[in-house]
Each structure stands twice: as C-alpha cells, then as structure tokens.
Amino acid sequence: MGGVAAIAWGVRRHRPARTAPWWLLAGSVAALTVGDVCYAYGHRDLAEPFYMSMFGSVSLCLLQFTRGGVLLPDRARLIDLLAFACSTLLVIWVFVIGAQGRMGAVPAADVIGGLLLVVVAGRLATADRRNVSARLLLIGALGLLAGDVCYPLAEGPLTESLFVVLYVGWAASALHPSMVRLTEPAPTPHDPGKFRWAVLLAASAGVPPTVLLIEALQGTVRDGVVIAVTGAITLLLVITRLADSIRRHGQALTREHVLRAATAALVAAADRPAVDAAVRAAVAQLLPPQDVRRVALVDELTPAELPPEPAGPATRSWWLDAVEPDERTMVCPLRLEPLDVARPSGGALVLTGRRESLATGHDALEVLAGQAALALDRITLVEAVGRRDSDLYLRAVIRNTADLMAVIDADQRIRYSSPALRDLLGQDELPPLTTLDELIHPDDRAMVRDALRAQGDGVLHCALQRADLTQVLIELTYRDLREDRLVQGLVVTMRDITRNHDPAERHPHAEHGGDMPAWVNRRSAQQRFRY
After folding, report:
1. Which residues fall in a compositionally biased region of kind Basic and acidic residues (predicted)?
2. Are residues 363 and 436 in the same domain?
3. Which is more confidently placed, 322 or 346?
4. Do 409 and 477 belong to one domain?
5. In angstroms, rounded to a whole number, what is the distance separating the alpha carbons of residues 8 and 105?
6. Distance CA 301, CA 296 (A)
7. Burial code of 54-84, b = ≥16 C-beta within 10 A, e = fewer?
8. Within a domain: 232
9. Are 361 and 258 spatial neighbours (Cβ–Cβ below 8 Å)?
10. Same domain, yes or no: 369 and 449
C-alpha cells in the first residue's frame, strides 16, 4: 500500500503528460498486494485471479508507456517482437522442458508473464540509458521475475524480499522526476510496414491454438492454463498492433484531406487575411479545438518567441514553454530560402496548446506553415509585379510630360522617377537603390526625412542638389499611399520655384565669407522668410 501511495503522490507532484499508465501501474501493485494477502492466509485459488489481473494491468501499463512517447516513438516493432517472444516461450515450456523437466511448484504463467515484463521494461531502459525511472521499472520487473521463480522453490524471508524489490522499484520510478519523459509526447514516425513483420505477427498469434491442438490430439491437455494465459497475452498484443495501425491510417487520411483542402484555400487566397483564415481552419481540423489556445501568423517574433539556440536555415520549427505546465508553444518560421527576397522579415506561425496534441500534429503543422509561407510569398511577389507593371505603365504614359514626380518606398528609396526630374538633376538615369535623401541638399535632409516618416500628406520647400553641386529650389508635395495595396509608398510631385526668387537666393545654402554685417543680416532675413 505504501507503493500505491508513492505512485499516486508521484503522479500528483510531477504531472506527466499521460497519467493512465501510472494509474495502471498503481492498480497492478494493488492487485498484487491483495493476491499476497490471500496467499498468506491460505486462499491460493482466490489469489491466482489477482495475480493474473496484475499481469494484465502491468502489460497495459508498459504498452501505454510505449505509445507516443519520446523513448519509443514507434512501438510496432516492439509489439511484434513481444508476440513472437511470448509464443516462443510457450513452445519452449511445453515441448522443450517437457513434463519431466518442469520446476515443480513454479507457475509457468507467472514466469512467462514476468519475462515479457522484463523485455518491455528493458526496451524502455535501453531507449534512454539516462532515464532513472525506466531503470527502476526494469529493476522492479526483474524482482518480480526472480520472486516468481525463487519463492516457490524456497519459501522464506530472503526470497520473499524479492517482491519488496518490485514494490520499492516501481514506487521509486514514480517519485523520480524522470518519470515525466516516459509519457512525453513525440511525433509519430512514418512506418511503411514490411511484409515479414506481418507474417511474424500472424505466426505468433497462431502458435497458442496450435499448441493446444497438439496436446488435445495427444490425449491430455497438461498446460491448459499456460496456453490460455499465453494466448490471451498474444491476442492482446495483436489487437493493440492492429488498433495502432488503424489509428495511424485514419490519422494519415485525415491529415491528407485537411492539407489538401488547406492547400486549395491558400492557392486561392488573395491577401493576408485570407491566408490567416485558411490556416486557422486547417488547424481547427488537424487538432482538437479545445486543445489549441492560440493560433497566430506574426510578422515579427518577440524576444520570448525566438529559438533557445540559433536556428539554421533548415530549422522548420522549435518548442517553447507556455504559461500552463500541460501546454507548449510551437513556432514554425514562415521562411523559404529561395524566396527570402520577397519577404525578408519572414514571420512565423505560432501555436500554443496541449503538448500531446501539438506533438501528434507536428509534421502536418510544419507542412501547413510551409504552404502558408508559399502563399504569402506568392501574394508579395504578385503585388511587387503589379507595382512594377504600374510603374512601367506610368512611365510609358508620362514619358513626354514636364511634371517632376517620383514614387518612393517606405524606406525612401526611389522606385520610379519621371524623365523631367532626371533632366532637372542633369542625369540620364538615377543609380539603382537611390534614396530621396541623396537628392536633397544636406541641410534640408533631416527636415524632409522627418516629414516623410510621419503619417499623412503635406507640402515642403527645400533644395535639390544637382550633379554639378548647383542647387534647385523646389516645392515638394507628397501623398502618403503606403497603405494602398497597389502603391505601398509615397507619391512625390515637385515644382521648380527657383525663378521666383532673386539671384541671391539661387543658392540658399552657399557660405559667404565676407565681413559685411549688412549683407549677413539681409542674408539671414531672406533665408528665414524666403518662402
């Protein structure tokens, strides 16, 4: 009862992702305890059902540990090998050891069940040699097997203490913090399934009835209990294996259907809200809605959402801790290397929800994030091509106009300039990636930069600096169309007002070295009120 209490306290304290295996382990210890009490008071026939139920509970417990855990992400091969080992042990017990070689009072069913528990616990321990909880489970299983063999042969305090090893080992495994890793969710690996494993499983399932038939034909069924227990265990393993295959096949079909529908919706998406709606609809079908608390397409990651380690170009996702202990945050970057120039900022798909659900749909969510990244890149490139075509159309229409105009991106790089502006500056073509700052006189750059960074339209008066270092006074009118889907920039028109000022003001930023106070005062006044 102390072992049962320790397991319950460990589950309550460490809160593993799945508690069912640990409650099955506690139930098996309780069943073994009741069986021991009945055995001690001489009710051996009553104790036997509790012992058999203990083996069933422990078998289910260990199989639950292997379902979707990080230690054994694929338990199909383990189940096949267990079924084959169970059938092989039955054949060895019945035909090799024989009636003369049996170990007297040693129960064959207990030995076979103990060996199978040792095999599964040993597989868990070898999957992660640093997991103390798995080692303690193996130690408890070894104590059970040794007690089943040694206690009937030599009853006494020493052999009875082997069962104490079982109680202490399994109780300590639940108390150790590494017990959480036994049920930590992991993505389901792809298993194509090979024919030889199916043949092995079918042969293992056919061994118990074959042995029973052989003994029946010989006239006396001597090992009916052993055959029944072995057949039940093998049948349980086969049913578990088939249930796993059916469940994984159903998940694959659902995932394929949802991803196909999401891909069609993302291909038809014309803007970012449509992409966001398609992603949310797909996530709602891939994962249970109650298990997902947050789904967001973000343009920039906060410092708390960055990966714990520097993520390389091939990194498709990473995990972060959430507020709730049962939840995790999964971040899938929306970055595709060939199209980085389309969306340099990238962005990410951020999901917060139950760890087990996110781990189960991990691969599908990464695929969905890749499809969303393709859709966003397509929309960005289509908009860029549309703006380029608009600029080319504008250039063809106003090729002979005398208007001075330019289209400027949000970073003030000139995307298009009219021929009249290039003629005014004395240049045939502006260099690529030229900014408006480079055309404005240095003394006016700060004023123009601050005005264009603000929201809204406006009018400025400043000076352009030509290639020969002469200056041109202009009236600059700008329209803020950064929110316009087709423009996404500022449209700037200019008017040459140099002729409206006296010759002394043709070069308003020229330095005069004279010592004439009148000239300086008049120059300062004109500089202040020239507009």
Report:
1. 499-514
2. no
3. 322
4. yes
5. 35
6. 11
7. bbbbbbbbbbbbbbbbbbbbebbebbbbbbb
8. no
9. no
10. no
CA atoms of 91 and 421, how far apart (whole Å): 96
Same-domain status, 461 and 363 = no
Provide the pLDDT confidence category of residue 199 given band limits of 50, 70 and 90: confident
Residues 421, 450 share a domain: yes
Q: Tell me which DSSP letter residue 341 carries.
A: T
179-183-189 Cα angle (round to 5): 140
* Same domain? 446 vs 363: no
Contact 52, 228 (CB under 8 A): no
Q: What pLDDT does residue 514 have? A: 44
How confident is residue 105, by pLDDT bands cut at 50, 70 and 90? Answer: low
pLDDT in tens, 138-187: 888 888 888 877 877 777 788 888 888 888 888 888 888 888 777 766 55
User: Would you say residue 515 lies in a domain?
Assistant: yes
Find the CATH number of the domain harbouring 416: 3.30.450.20
d(CA 57, CA 23): 9
The total domain count for the chain is: 3
DSSP SS3 for 458: strand
Q: What are the start-end ranges of the E strands in 368-520? A: 404-408, 414-417, 458-465, 471-481, 489-496
Q: Are strands 414-417 and 404-408 parallel, antiparallel or unpaired?
A: antiparallel
Asked if residue 210 is part of any domain, the answer here is: no
pLDDT tens for 426-454 read: 777 778 778 888 888 888 888 888 888 88
Residues 375 and 437 in one domain: no
Cα–Cα distance, 133 to 176 (Å, whole number)? 6
Q: Nearest Cα to 225, choosing from 237, 211, 236, 238? A: 211
> Three-state DSSP class for 319?
strand
Query: pTM score, two decimals?
Result: 0.55
Domain hosting residue 296, numbered range: 269-306+314-381
| Cα–Cα distance, 453 to 436 (Å, whole number) | 12
CA distance 452 to 467: 23
- The answer to whether residues 371 and 411 belong to one domain is no
Q: Among residues 499, 451, 457, which one has the least CA distance to residue 477? A: 457
Exposure string over 252-271, b if 16+ CB within 10 A, otherwise e:
eeebeebbeebbebbeebee
Which one of 351, 381, 411 terminates a domain? 381
